[in-house]
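Checked the freezer inventory, then went back to the computational side. Two predictions to log before the end of the day. The first one is the construct we discussed on Monday; recording sequence and tokens without edits.
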Amino acid sequence: MNGELAVSPAAYPPPEIDQPLAAPSDPDPIEVGVCIVGAGPAGLACAIRLGQLLADDPASAERLGEVPVVVVEKGKQPGSHLLSGAVVNPRALQRLFRDRKPIEELPLLGPVKGERVYLLTPRRATPIPTPPTMRNHGNQLASLSRLGRWLAREAEEAGAMILAETAATRLLVRGGRVAGIRTGDKGRGRDGEQLANFEPGSDLRARLTVLCEGSQGYLTAAALEHFALRSDFPQTWELGVKEVWRVPGGLDRVIHTLGWPLRPGARYREFGGTFLYPMGGDLLTIGIVVGLDYRDSALSAHDLLQEVKTHPAIRKLLAGGERLEWGAKTITSGGALALPKRLHAPGLLLAGEGAGFVNVPTLKGVHYALETGMLAAEAAFAALAQPGAPPILEALSGYDEAVAGSEAWRELQQVRNMRQVFHRGLFVGGALASLMTLTRGRFPAGPFPSEPDAAVSLISTDRAASYPAPDGLLTFDKLSSVFAAGNKTRDDQPNHIRIQTQVPRRLGELWQNMCPAQVYELLDGEDGATVSVRVTPSNCVQCGAISAKGGRLTPPEGGSGPEYEGV
């Protein structure tokens, strides 16, 4: 470690952030029945299912008022901030729409027709048997951003009101129960001053609030802390970076790779892999996922993706092609052990990825989001169908019981230790994961140890020396990639990123290299042990990686961030 003292991001927490909890104070609040935060798969499935149930029970719908269901979405439109592979298990969509819509009418890209898994070295791609957890027979290909826009239209047809370009910045709490949310102001300058187009936020007072914020949810984190819901085991995350390409002939199969460009040794703790998925016609998507518990401050997921495209086997698939779109997002990866102790609190339900419902070994989470969103809707309906005051805590406990009896819960329990074993490196971790698969999770009998991503001590290597220079054809720099994400953030809006700006050089290098959007920069001329970090928040695509590694992403102005179209 070059004689330097050990450094971990957790030792440099972000400065005090604005209080995410508040008492209702708006003299003219917007009264709603159910307030759903997040127009992702969980939130939209919740809205659609509630609409179905209320359509069959007009009396309950009338009791919820003029706006029985509202969905608050911080992106420019539903789907703007949605990014995933995505290979989707269709069972949740089939349950949501039952006999209303056949699978052929859903905006999916078709079934998986073939798949291969390769172990990569710098020059070779060796086919290996597909691990049982990664088999995709019967699954469907999809663009999650497109699916999200379609689900939003279905939710509106079911009676939900969708408030896009609206950031949920406060969780309203009164008398020990959640009473709704407060939306963020719009039209403030860099220093918080009111601009000519200023619009103040509003209180949305709700009988029940459902948080479906996705990875690194701001209000979800506040609720877990305030109501003591957080698991005894730490939540962890991966960072995914992906691109959409148009290539002659397209792609006819799903491809996953293990190994290079990640290093297999336990010293580096580099977990992840590459994926290539067909997207119909001449389109394909290529991406890489990297666990955020890695140690090397020089590691860059964006540059690893550029590097893997130079592999002979991958370069051949992209030959003659054109990059169309780029995006980045964190993925919740703590699994069953990191799920909240309860999924409800007074006036509140938690659903989807924000609560931790992602199965990293199977590379699946969309159908879990849909399933928990539906179960949250059914629990909310059952509680709110009772006349009188807002539902008491016991009335919401049926949600936890329903989740505990679901396929999602059973599947997550079977792989509850599988992510943690890769702390021991690719090959030892792979062997242990195989034992877990053979025993359906009965091995080991207890939990494998884990630690927060931010607690991992950092090392520095010359890893960056092998990253390819951007050529604008096959490999690309970070700033051109931000442009390819359709970023809508104003240059003069308030900074929504909280970090310490005077930190050890190794930590500053970690943030600079980790960020796929070039938000963090070490100031010129700094060559000591401590450096200054400059933040360019207008570059941010709200991936959330900084929240896993010592900083905190807070809600930016509604409507800012990426405008994903087909990722």
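The second is the one RB wanted added to the comparison set:
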Amino acid sequence: MKIEGLSRTCLILLIALSRFLPSNAAASAHSKKPHEIAAPATRGYDYSHPEVQPAKETLDLNMYARIRDEGLDHSRIMDYATALFDDIGQRLTGSPNMAKANAWTRDQLAAMGCANARLESWGDFGMGWRQIATSANMAKPDTAVFIAQATPWSPATPGLITADVIAVPYFRDEKDFDKWKGKLAGKIVLFGRAPKINPSPKPLLESYDGNKLQEIFSYPLDGDFKEQHVFPSTPDFWANVFKQVNFKEQVSKFFADQHAAAILVSSYGGDGGIMKDDNNEAMGQRVYMPDHKQPIPSVVLADEAFGRISRLLEHDVPVTLGLNVQTEFTGDHEQGYNTIAEIPGTDPQLKDQIVMAGDHLDSWIAGTGATDDGAGAIIAMEAMRILTALHVQPRRTIRVALWSGEEQGEFGSLGYVDQHLATVGYATTPEQLAVPTFLRQITGPITPKPDYALFSAYFNLDNGGGKLLGIYTNNNAAIVPIFQQWIAPLKDLGVTTVSMRPSGSSDQDSFDNVGLPGFQFIQDPRDYETRSVHTNQDTYERLSADDLKQAAVVEAIFLYNAAMRDQMLPRNPFPHPELEKKTESNLMPDAAKK
């Protein structure tokens, strides 16, 4: 039997070829010359028919050994650390230092053998800014040198100013302004209450033991994931939080209109000379935008200094302070860039699929951003160096992304997802528009782009410089037995735990929120939360070379395994936030009718 001139044998051959050819190529296969062979089609994730995952993973233990040898015995990670943290220093998004770090990481990734090393813009960030110097010295009733820094995007003082200090409590709303009108001209405002300092603090250094890891492994039925930085997702929660945050813009404008000289705020966390200086200290969440530019200098003081001034004023002792804030704005519309590089895939069917490691390169200004998240950035760089040094030929493409704008709202990773993977529908009520995009309610729909089906997994590090103890799967049950097999040969390095818990407040959210596998590693905390995160102590000295080497080895192995297995990693179901329904109000049959 023949069908339109094709023999049954030819038809069978064409059907077989169509499994590997794009549809247009299959339709015209009979017209190709005998020597022309079309490239096999790239496979992608199919939600309707997901790939069957094997019960047993095929692990290349020889490659495990080679990665361990290269990463533990020939590491360059501390070279990257001193270059990034000692030479370049802090990396505030939009700043000259951030631009320098972007260029340096791109060049280093290219030099180690990665392909397509480049800077990729995610859009207009806002104002470039840098702190040159800040000093705060008490002149009366005693002389003292205080630990102080400008808050991010603070304007400068007109040189050294010497002025009396006046204590002003927090304002609940604009009605509280009235009491202070006409009283602030020429004064330095000590704004808010003095923090209470525990005279018997716990030790700063902490490590997770077996009991703690068992706790992390266990899934809390009450839904409390605060330890994993997952917070309430109800629309009103973040709207109320940022209503208070955005009110600080009105506060700074009021102080400026009253001709105050400057604002002093306390560090919301840390003592013993440890001082945080981040978005919680800034006078509003959008002070980096030209149309939200702060009109008055503001300085964060170490808690001990703030407390001393506060107590003196409470006892009616006049305080005079010398203040010098030297800052510089370097542009109104600085572009935000991510550093991207890759090891190209080699399998004809899988090479367009992506396995990704990412960490944010930007930091706050108080220290040099060594643990938040410079450590994650150099771990990812070292993982790529290990793989290129071993001349691996991954079946899938392994890509690294070093984000900027994370500290202001995960801008870099959100921009990457929006440009390459999927668009997201967010709530547009006035209350929600006052909330940063990464915390805004997702109302849908989520619209995938072509590369969405080709994305296999994203691995993130953003909890300091401690060694890796396991990984969170973000409620992905299908991935648990896979990761458990991957870490089995790594138990001697301390990698023991696969937890179903979600993790939040970093760049894996940008992928997970659109239904793509985004994972955060479980890290030993060391003194990340107690001493270094966002503080003046976030420096090279907080790093453990042994922990960083271990982390790079583990991440390199995860990237290699994900790139080499036959199947893409399994996903959670595709999210449809637009279909979610609120609980009906007539649940109770005897409830009064409204």
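For RB: The longest helix spans residues 235-257. Residues 122 and 419 are 8 Å apart (CA to CA). Let me know if you want it refolded.
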